[in-house]
Target: Phage tail protein
Amino acid sequence: MLKPKLLRQEISRLVPWVRANPDRLVLYVPRGHVVGRGGASASFEYQYTLEVLVMDFPGSTDDIMLPIQIWARQYEPELLFNPDNQKNGITFEVDILSNDAIDLLVKIQVAEAVAVTSESGKPVVHHRADAPPDLMEGMDGWAMAVRDMASTVSGDTAGDK
Model:
């Protein structure tokens, strides 16, 4: 599976605290299933719940949610743009440990296509996590969010976790 690695990279890139404390970010897949197409190709799709756990985090939930939204826009746009997926596609739980720290668990419904082709008579497996065409090209809000997020530790959220 490729998408968990891509999400870890995005969160680490945009959240300095996570870069400094990489062991406090854990990604795992507690459940999933494989959907075969049953056609001429052996290609299939993984459908799974990706859980993102950030432990002892001193920032705001916003600091983690924004990179997840940016990642989802690129790799799982159905979670943002399909009304049927918006309610349960990304869910979360927060354990408030103290005034200064939380544990944040985010659950993301992921679909990852796997293309199976043949080269010299042998199967070749390719995970297709490449970004779809940018449907929001030119919308400054996303570019601004990425730029500002990369240079900010935490926004002013009036102490909200």
Summary: The helical segments are 3-14, 16-20, 61-75, 78-81, 83-86, 140-150. The chain has one domain: 3-149. The longest strand covers residues 101-119.
